[in-house]
Amino acid sequence: MANLSEILKSETLTSHKQVEKLVIDQIKKINNEDDYIALLEKFYLFYQGIEELSFPYLQEQQAAAELCEKRSPLILQDFEELQTGKAIAIGGLSALPIPQNYPEALVALYVLEGSSLGGPYIAKMLEKRGIQRGLNFFRGDQADFMQHWQQFKNLLNEIPETTDYEHLTDFSNAVFTGFGKILDKNYQLAYSS
Ligand code: HEM
């Protein structure tokens, strides 16, 4: 039987493709910093929401508590760099599924951890759209990025096989869909089965 990280990767592929396309479409429409700030706000709602809902459960596993760090504060730093005085609405939670235990929290964070792998590509696309500052969140600052990703996948693979993996992949897909809805309220996942 494949391990949970591999199952998640294959079972959320459709979600990834759809959300990736949505993000790319929105980047292509960016013409100035205000447009960029509007996109960054959506990432903030998503990251801040999932982190707030998931991090309390990480305390149950020391390795997870030590490995995972919140990344939404980096977005706040970028807002400062962009000198936006905009108050950030806390409204992302209604679109997101709410983890009720450690395994659900971890597969929700899988979506965030994975999305940071695409960050450097997003940063390059934004540079091409003329964005020159406030890119710290997307660029990432971890030299040991792949090592961190591997360690995170190890945490996923330590979730016992007796756990309902199908439920966990559904949960992860629901997190992707939540972000899709934050990006575009009409978003729907077209399941490929
Ligand atoms: C322009 C947008 C994006 C690009 C270009 C992109 C690109 C990538 C790439 C290249 C990888 C593979 C990295 C590797 O294994 O070496 C990856 C993985 C991943 N991305 Fe994205 N991504 C984008 C947006 C997103 C978003 C918005 C999310 C989530 C909301 C996301 C979630 C994930 C996840 C969960 C993985 C891990 C897949 C696995 O299990 O290996 N991505 N992405």
Automatic annotation (TrEMBL):
InterPro entries found in the cross-reference section: Haem_Oase-like, Haem_Oase-like_multi-hlx
Transmembrane segments: none
Matches recorded under Pfam families: Heme_oxygenase
Top-level taxon: Bacteria
Name by which UniProt lists this protein: Biliverdin-producing heme oxygenase
Organism: Sphingobacterium hotanense
